[in-house]
Amino acid sequence: MYRGKNITKIRELLDKKVITKEEVFEKATSLAHYFQDEYNSFVTILDKVKIKDSDSLLSGIPYALKDNFSTRGILTTASSNILKDYVPVYDATVYKKLKKAGATLVGKTVLDELAMGGTGTTAHTGVVRNPWDKERMIGGSSAGSAACVALGIVPFAIGSDTGDSVRKPAGFGGIVGFKPTYGRISRYGLFAFASSLDHVAICSRNVRDAALVTDILKGQDPLDMVTLKSENVKYVDTLNDDIKGKKLFYIKEVCGKDFYKDTNDLVLKKVITTFHDMLDKCRDKGFIIEEVSIDMDLLTALYPAYMCISCAEATSNNANLTGIQFGPRGVGNTIEEIIFNARTEGFSELIKRRFVLGSYILQKENQEKLYLNACRVRRLIVDKITELFEEYDGMIAPCSGGVAPTFDSRSEKLSARYLILENHMVMGNFGGFPSITIPYTMIDKLPVGLNITGRVKDDALILNIAQKIEELTGLKDIYAKVGEIDV
Amino acid sequence: MIDKEKLEEYASKLMFKMKDEEYKTLQEEFEIILKQMELIGKIPNIEKVEPMTFPFKNTDVNLREDEILDYLTVGEVLENTKHQIDDQVKVPKVVDEDV
Amino acid sequence: MYKVVIGLEVHCELKTKSKNFSSAPNTFSTFPNSNVAAVDLGLPGILPVVNKEACRKALLTAMALNCQNPDEVIFDRKNYFYPDLPKGYQITQVTKPMGVNGYLDVLVGDKIKRVKIHQLHLEEDTASLEHHPKYSLIDYNRSGIPLIEIVTEPCIESGEEAVAFLEDLRDVFLFLGVSEAKSNYGQMRCDVNISLMEEGSTKLGTKVEMKNINAFNNVKVAIEYEIKRQSALLDKGEKIIQETRRIAEDGKTYSMREKVDAIDYKYFIEPNIPSTPLRHEYLEELRSSLPELKLDRYLKYINKYNIGKSDAKVLAKVRSISDYFEEVLSYGSDVSLAVNFVTTSILSTLNKLEISVDELFISPKMLSEVIEYVYQGKISLDHGKKILYKAIEEKIDPIELIKKENLKQINDEDELLELIKKVMDDNLEQVRQYIEEDNKHVINFFIGQTMKVSNRQANPNKSLELIKCELERRKTDGK
């Protein structure tokens, strides 16, 4: 009755008084508990909620929040030992807005430690499993947020997206992942990973719900200087606009048919074929879709440039984690010792490696060659895409070259081909472009997503296009129907 | 290859220690990323490109009016540390007075 | 002999209502951790939001120091670990400081010394540490208070020049109203870099750094001690060690530690503060609001108004006094009378009542009216001053007071002579002393009596002349 329902359906049940808000919350938390051991979506599941009266469409709608959003009085760990006992004293703007709208927080979701990872395997509370296949990753870093939506526990969840941290796991989880334009949603209270790339993003099971939640969250926030002036338009109202004649491009070097004709990877082949089949369906619907080519050197530079910029910013952003004014205090007799011990014990290996890398990149003698060159590549790429957006309304591509990887798979990060196809969504963060992932096909019973990215500030159009393509996929509102629970 | 001592020094400047085997992984990672960055350095005229910090030019920026608004109570300031005396955060004696 | 090369780094807290990047109060509090926002504590998820007024004050100061301003406001992060720095980085300005390449002309003795300003930037203060024998305590109240740092070129050559610069710089802050600049509250702090070089050499000597000196006099003491210490070492052919020293209470400096490799602060542009363009019109508007500064006023007073140097110094020192004085002049008052009244009556009243000139009952307009009465000889200077004190005490317009007390000055010589004759007839013994004993002291006695009899309205200068004549006349007649 409740599980797997989208926002509109739950709204209907509530409005018709078939079910009360309290009952909805209870059902959501019981689902959360039921799936917790197997899939590990949550760091914290709440047991009670104070529902604010509101006439918002989200009133009484349960949701989950990534555990790197500051929630006053509720444990917020960023899935790291260094914050394992941290209870914030202030609310993130996003949380405040959702509270005001009357949405009910079911739990705080697991992420890759400090949001620095793409696997969902590095949280201090253990790995998150993919609802479609427990032996596979859901991807990250917003692993728990994607998983709990894919399990039908909540209709939507909030995540953060610095490289592709919502859109990637959304792709592997068969759900919608939407990252609006940089500054569309306030980051105040989101634990910073790489500030110039960090976005608040939304997991939902259909495009309309993503638009609806964005409508609630968007707007200029005096506490976040990068936020954009509020628009009067409601995205949910423009979803059905006619898209005839809208022009999309895909990058040959990312997903061109010919580009992969020699591959032995059958799944990759299937991804590319089904993707192009989907493009044909889109063309039938009235879209104009063309192939463009971009300099390979620029595309291969994407991932290393992303690594440099994100690690550099991250090492600075996390320098507040010393155990002095909050977090577990390290033992020791001197101030250096206690900070050393807190940080040595608090961060996992991966985090430390990234910090060292970031710090090295920022060293005076390396800045020019590493940090600044990475920032230069960022400009070249963003300029190129922006130039294409003068002619095209959006860019389209598969989210990745395959289905969700198994836990034991070793990624072939080093080959240039994978480097591009697995990481192209970073472009959305480089330029702050609105970018959305929706499921478009199933391969071996596992969902695969495609991504649409558009002009800065043109969130409405991207949602509009995504909604039209969603109609063609037949995969709207899907979730992993696992478990023997009926609520 | 960046030698281990150098990496140890970087880690120590970041106020943490790493294990020996972790440095090995780190050295490998460094090798990969530095090689990739070397390729970036070869992009023609890269040095003439203005480095990008902000995703796009934001024309909606407002500086804050000079007003006192929300701030924390003393209790909130100290809520996340057990180590306190006289409403202040207690730490081992700080010897070196300046940085 | 060695040439002394000194560069100063001056930190000054700006006076604003709220902090630089948070809306917590920027006020001195004796209660620890009572003025702290999440931003100032560096809690996870916080974001800086730039205080417009702090930017305005920093830009204004940069303009007053003849600096070039940037075309946009951006900030950088300075990364280092220290317990007084909760974020693990300080937000400061490296890429585009609020001002570069400026100067401040400073009066050292009788000469003007141009101190070149390398840059002025806006940043945030750190938390404060209180040291106890076995532990230290952190108070975050100071964390995030807007701070400007002014870095001079190494162009200062003596302790005297350094102190003159610091004092004049503080007066700039006070004239602009950007800071209270109280060094005893640590609102203004100074780092000194000093090196000695052989006379005639072009090679700079080894630099010694002295940090965080609050009192200006200590700056002078420290510099003079260092000059002596370093000269002695160089005379002996020894090397100066590059190090950081501190000044102790005995006026000597002691080594804190040798300077190892400079810390790499890994600066990068603060990504949470988007660039804010500084429009030309805004900067021009700001520039036009700059008040005339102390030295310019001083030079104007001595050159244009022919005021003596010591009076000119006193009048130009405090902006409110100087503004008051200039407003008095703007009503056309006589300059020397205005100088006289302001430097004596007004200043002594302010001192006595411990008030500022803005709180004074006598407005510049009122003072100018009193001065006009004196200037036209309607009342005496002496009277004028007495009236002023009374007006302040009773909070009555001084002109009304003059009218009420029917004050005027007797200038008519016939009238005066009649008075004087009467006084002399009543005091024949004193007249006799003058005639027979040639006792000149009785002249003062007669002046006193004349003033008394005339209810202090007799014109004292004229009376003096007339008394002398009358006494001489009687002496001649008596023979």
Q: What would you say this structure looks like, in words?
A:
The complex is a heterotrimer of chains A (487), B (99) and C (479). Chain A has a single domain (1-487), classed as Amidase signature (AS) domain (Amidase signature (AS) enzymes, Alpha-Beta Complex), CATH 3.90.1300. Helices cover 39% and strands 15% of the residues of chain A. Chain A has 15 helices and 13 strands. Chain A has helices spanning 7-15, 21-39, 93-101, 143-150, 167-173, 207-217, 252-255, 266-285, 296-317, 335-346, 349-362, 364-391, 416-421, 426-431, 459-473; strands at residues 42-45, 62-66, 104-109, 129-130, 133-137, 156-161, 176-179, 199-204, 247-251, 288-292, 394-398, 435-443, 446-454. In chain A, strand 2, helix 3 and strand 3 (104-109) form a beta-alpha-beta unit. Chain A is globular, with a radius of gyration of 21 Å. The mean pLDDT of chain A is 95. Chain C folds into three domains: 2-280, no CATH class; 318-404, no CATH class; 413-478, Arc Repressor Mutant, subunit A (Orthogonal Bundle), CATH 1.10.10. Chain C is elongated, with a radius of gyration of 31 Å. Chain C contains 15 helices and 15 strands. In chain C, the strands form four sheets. An eight-stranded mixed sheet of chain C has the order 5-6-9-1-10-11-12-13. Chain C has a three-stranded antiparallel sheet with strand order 4-3-14, with no helix packed on it. Chain C is α+β, with helices and mostly antiparallel strands and 479 residues long.
